[in-house]
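Input.
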Amino acid sequence: MKVLVTIKRAIDYNVHIRIADDGSGVITDGVKHSVNPFDEIALEQAIRWKEAGTVDEVVAVSIGNAACAEQLRTALAFGCDRAIRVAHEEAVSPLTAARTFSALVESEAPDVILMGKQSIDDDNGQTGQMTAALLGWPQATYASTIEINETSARVTREVDDGLETLDIDLPAVITADLRLNEPRYLKLPNIMKAKKKPIEESSLEALGVEADTSLRVTHTAAPAPRKPGVMVDSPEALVSELKNKGLL
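Output.
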């Protein structure tokens, strides 16, 4: 079996986000970037399948400029067999990403496309669903557990009413939720070996993909500061304050 894992270069979740003065977006220059955390969970799951002998090959793919090679090398350090960078200098919309991943299916022929349920920078959460739609494949999103064999997958996902279990045929698109696993800490020897491994290059043009131009960010603003809390000196005062706010 072959798994294609999609990863995105995103600002590290520990970094304090700063908005550009003109509201055009967030400041990225000189800011630490990492693999999107949900994509890292997908990576971990694919490597666990490989270590268990369920999967024969794991291929990591990312779309972006030369800087995203750093995150692809992280994927190689996890244990991916190959890494592909699809060159693109502009922001990548969900539809552009979906078109790219579906185009790669022709040459890579994966049994599973595994990705994080969303990226922490734009929080669209649409790429997996769009990819499955373009390919006409079954999809299972927000997976908290996954069991696969050569022909099918059983995916458990958390919903408002509890747990929902889906049985889907392969090939399929699956997106990973936070509870699927806890990614491993990378060992220094694996990181050093990954620096010497090649990264395959492609582009939207080579894949015959047209970038989506229908979505653009017009303005970015920081959330309004939270109002300070109110100190009360008795339970009665607390109840009165809650009633004044319409909460009781």
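DSSP finds seven helices and eleven strands in the chain.
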